[in-house]
Amino acid sequence: MILLTSAPIDYHALTESVRSPASGAVVLFLGTVRELTAGRRTVALDYEGYPQMAEAELAKLESQARSRWPIDRVAIVHRLGRLELGEISVAIAVSCPHRKQAFEAGQFLIDELKVSVPIWKQENWDDGTTEWVHPGNDGTPATESTASNDSTDSTKTTE
Questions:
Q1: Which of 4, 18, 47, 135 would bridge 95 by S-S if both were Cys, CB 3.0 to 4.6 A apart?
Q2: Containing H/E element for 2?
Q3: 131 and 155 in contact (C-beta within 8 Å)?
Q4: What is the mean predicted confidence (pLDDT) over 128-146?
């Protein structure tokens, strides 16, 4: 299952959707909105994406993971829109016959998602500024920032 949604992610239902008698391991990864990033206080995140392209890229990643590990079932869900502290932004659940395979497949999926899927994250800082975060750079803000009352658009990039 691949899903982009503006609704909260039901990680319990997601986990149950990949459980199977054929698999002895289920791994669940949850990405959540954290309060501090590089020493700055976050008040919220805004996620934007290109749904058709993002879903196509997620399907490619799933196919690549299935070619490398004996995945029984997999589910990937990413939120779009405004998320507050503690909310889940992304969830990946993987079931495989053994734990090492499930952990490796799950890590591959989240790492590659961050690099190749066209979903952008904007940090909303407690000082009123905002900053687009470059996909795949592990949360380090981009060099461009704008004040929250600035009408200029920040550039989003997938490089």
A1: 18
A2: strand 2-5
A3: no
A4: 63
